[in-house]
Amino acid sequence: MTFRAVSAQARMEILLTLRRGESVLATLGIPVGVLVFFSVVDAVDTGFEQPVDFLVPGVLALAVIATGMVSLGIATAFERRYAVLKRLGSTPLSRSGLVIAKTSGVLVVEVLQAAVIVGVAATLGWDVTGRLVGAAGVLLLGTVTFAGLGLLMAGTLKAELTLALTNLLYVAFVLVGGVAVPLARLPDWLETVAKVTPAAQLTEATRATLLGGAVPAWAIGGLVAWAVAAPVLAAAAFRWEE
Amino acid sequence: MAHPAPAVEALDLVKDYDGRRALDGVTLTVAHGETLGIVGPNGAGKTTTVEILEGYRRADGGSARVLGLDPQREGRALRPRMGVMLQEGGLYPGIRPLEALRLFASYYRDARDPEELLEVVGLGDSRSTTVRRLSGGERQRLSLALALVGNPEVLFLDEPTAGMDPRGRAAAWELVRGCQREGTAVVLTTHAMDEAEALADRVGVMDAGRVVAIGTPGELRSAQPRADTQFSARPGLATQDLARALGLDASAIRETRAGEYEIDAAPTADLVADLTAWLRDRDVVLGDLRAGTSSLEEVYLRLTRERSAADDPPAP
């Protein structure tokens, strides 16, 4: 009964996400575009023999940011605007059921993204190496963080503002989140600021696990703190009606 | 089956929004299988009342019970048995009608067949159209179908036919009547008096956060009697002459349409005798003769006008 409702809800969340063209562009088009562009164009000195080895962890992190924050945040903001959330509130589908369905939807889309990114990366000469389970764990922490941030904006701001703000942050994270440009190449002050953002923490932690190196304490510590704070704040501040 | 408690019970509901009193002691009950229509001007408190009963809002005073349950604290038990249609919105813009019905059907233990319901609300041809491309009336019909898909015992409809064309409205009325036949209790708000008259067993008139009158449409009309008489006969009768014969002012009788006459006086036995005598003397055949009654619309306008007049500050 409840399982039937939650699984039907999860299927619909995925279907509606894939049906939104701008969502597919943000979640798949941009990460794959970044991966291909910076792999074939020698734009930034990454210090790696093959730029793709540097790029894949950052692009996987970017995919998580796109699905958790941009896609989920914008979709939920407009569900709130159009009173979809309000309407669901008077059905037997519980709030926890809705959150489970949305979470499952995000995870399924992320698996699709990872499959495409890994496939494209393989054609660019990337070999799967490093601690895959560790990387998956880090990406899961990132999912909790960015889904929390997306829902925090969706549940407190006007829908248009959520749309603008998530996209602004997305672009900012591509530039200073250690995705395509190594953090060490940023000016000192900007590097310091960047390291406080969950984006840089996620890319660095993912990169370290996939390259088999030690995960910096600032990255994993900061990410865990964000992963706790973001959903707690979202749950506390979320307003179901705009 | 005997029900000890009414399906819906609101007792002395009070609600303030930012210091403004939106509800000022609203009391109403709806029996199982009964339909209550709530009419009233914008801002009268109709939606606030309904949303407290649905569990969306907490009253600042008074109590609400739906199917014997507290909508705030026992919503989990209530929601599977309740159908809701919001005044607007509530639909995913990217969903298709049949998908929406199947999704909502999955929430309920004993749901209606989505395909069949889709046909009943006349959206069978729109199954591959997303909500964002449906007309306003089609969205309303889909919202109504979603309110019904769980076979509710109690149904809340907030202006269900606003924006529907006459055919859509007829289909919506038929759906509501189907629920009534199955014993569903219905609470519906509307601005259309003919809708209240057609669907509601009882009508509550709200104004400025209060229920100013409640009763069957017949009770409301007869509580506001109107003293006039209507008859039909051949066109062009000398109305001033007739008025004199009946002992009335010359302007008391009008030919409202060709052959339709209205007399500003109650149809007493004397008046009817004098009228028929006058007609006989002129060899005129009487078509029909009716005592005038107020329409629900007139009752509503009078009730809400009286109140707003009473609220106005006295002229200097």
Describe the structure.
Chain A has 242 residues and is an all-alpha fold. Helix content of chain A is 78%, strand content 0%. The longest helix of chain A is centred in the first third of the chain and has 31 residues, at 51-81. Chain B has helices at residues 46-54, 75-78, 97-105, 114-120, 136-148, 166-181, 193-199, 217-222, 239-245, 269-281, 296-311; strands at residues 8-17, 20-30, 35-39, 61-66, 82-85, 154-158, 185-189, 202-207, 210-215, 229-232, 253-257, 260-263, 289-291. In chain B, the strands form 3 sheets. In chain B, strands 5-6-7-3-8-9 form a 6-stranded mixed beta sheet, sandwiched between helices. Chain B has a 4-stranded antiparallel beta sheet with strand order 11-12-10-13, covered by helices on one side. A 3-stranded antiparallel beta sheet of chain B has the order 2-1-4. Chain B is elongated and about 75 Å long. The longest helix of chain B has 16 residues, at 166-181. In chain B, helix 3 crosses helix 4 (114-120). Chain B is α/β, with parallel strands linked by helices and 316 residues long. In chain B, strand 1 and strand 2 (20-30) form a beta hairpin. Chain B starts with 7 loop residues before the first strand and ends in a 5-residue tail after the last helix. The model of chain B is unreliable at 312-316 (pLDDT under 50). The interface between A and B is medium-sized, with 23 and 27 residues.
Helix-strand blueprint:
The complex is a heterodimer of chains A (242) and B (316).
Chain A: H1 2-19, H2 21-40, H3 51-81, H4 84-88, H5 95-123, H6 132-156, H7 159-176, H8 188-194, H9 198-211, H10 217-237
Helix pairs in contact in A: 1-5, 2-3, 2-5, 3-5, 3-6, 3-7, 3-9, 6-9, 6-10, 9-10
Chain B: E1 8-17, E2 20-30, E3 35-39, H1 46-54, E4 61-66, H2 75-78, E5 82-85, H3 97-105, H4 114-120, H5 136-148, E6 154-158, H6 166-181, E7 185-189, H7 193-199, E8 202-207, E9 210-215, H8 217-222, E10 229-232, H9 239-245, E11 253-257, E12 260-263, H10 269-281, E13 289-291, H11 296-311
Parallel strand pairs in B: 3-7, 3-8, 5-6, 6-7
Antiparallel strand pairs in B: 1-2, 1-4, 8-9, 10-12, 10-13, 11-12
